[in-house]
């Protein structure tokens, strides 16, 4: 009997982050680390080139206790398809916890599934992220931010256009910082006082870190169903 489990996973990146919890939970129940293959042949395709996606995620993935190896898929045999939930009849009819429980027989999100370094520099900051790929009323940020001191808020981004659109649509001028890569983003989100963002990769990372966060919902029933009643998450959905 093998002492590890082989997984294959597609995108998108936020879903990829959520799917890592399956490996983590099975590691805790079987004591078997995972060999993880990343691919565009199952699930959704990643928005960036597959090799680029692999390279920017490699460091943080390989640091996780439950990972034995992390590679780009090249036709190898695998035990579990982490993107198979997309074909489940339960999709759109239950939240992430129930969906992954039924598809993979795990207590999804029971354990923190991303650990990362801490940077004291961000410990008193309320970090804002916003993906323009998600719909909804961006002005909801105004309603939430009004409850905090603007000097404590830091808008972090990777794509210049997203911050430009955020400023134009909200009229907010915030302290801002352009992070270098996803590894730095994860450190920021792990270190900040609070994270506020819409349903995109940064919020998925906060879920995985089990970090205090506020998720700003939008009109997609997909989001409202999958994220309702998040088990053991330190997250508020508004």
Describe the protein in words.
Helix content is 34%, strand content 18%. It has helices at 13-30, 50-62, 96-104, 140-145, 160-170, 182-191, 201-209, 221-226; strands at 4-9, 33-38, 67-72, 80-81, 126-128, 153-157, 175-178, 194-198, 213-216, 235-237. Helix 8 links the parallel strand 9 (213-216) and strand 10. The N and C termini lie far apart (47 Å). The model is unreliable at 219-233 (pLDDT under 50).
What's the CATH first level of the largest domain? Answer: Alpha Beta
Cα(first) to Cα(last) distance is 47 Å
The main sheet comes to: 6 strands, parallel
Question: How many DSSP helices?
Answer: 8
Provide a brief overview of the structure.
With 238 residues, the chain is α/β, with parallel strands linked by helices. It contains eight helices and ten strands.
Supply database-style keywords.
Rossmann fold; 4-stranded parallel sheet; 8 helices; single chain; about 240 residues; 6-stranded parallel sheet; alpha/beta
């Amino acid at each position: 009997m093998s002492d590890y489990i082989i997984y294959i996973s597609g995108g998108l990146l936020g879903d990829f982050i959520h799917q890592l919890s399956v490996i983590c939970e099975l590691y805790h129940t079987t004591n078997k680390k995972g060999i993880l293959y990343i691919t565009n042949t199952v699930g959704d395709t990643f928005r960036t080139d597959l090799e680029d996606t692999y390279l920017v995620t490699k460091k943080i993935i390989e640091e996780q206790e439950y990972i034995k190896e992390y590679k780009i898929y090249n036709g190898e045999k695998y035990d579990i398809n982490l993107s198979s939930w997309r074909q489940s009849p339960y999709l759109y009819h239950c939240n992430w916890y129930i969906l992954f429980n039924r598809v993979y027989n795990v207590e999804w999100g029971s354990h923190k599934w991303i650990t990362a370094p801490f940077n004291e520099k961000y410990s008193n900051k309320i970090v804002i992220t916003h993906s323009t790929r998600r719909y909804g009323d961006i002005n909801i940020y105004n309603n939430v931010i009004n409850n905090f001191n603007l000097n404590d808020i830091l808008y972090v981004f990777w794509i210049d256009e997203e911050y430009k659109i955020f400023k134009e649509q909200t009229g907010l001028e915030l302290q801002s910082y352009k992070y270098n890569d996803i590894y730095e983003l994860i450190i920021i989100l792990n270190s900040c006082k609070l994270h506020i963002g819409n349903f995109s990769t940064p919020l998925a990372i906060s879920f995985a870190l089990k970090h205090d966060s506020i998720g700003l919902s939008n009109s997609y029933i997909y989001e409202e169903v999958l994220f309702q009643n998040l088990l053991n998450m330190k997250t508020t959905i508004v």
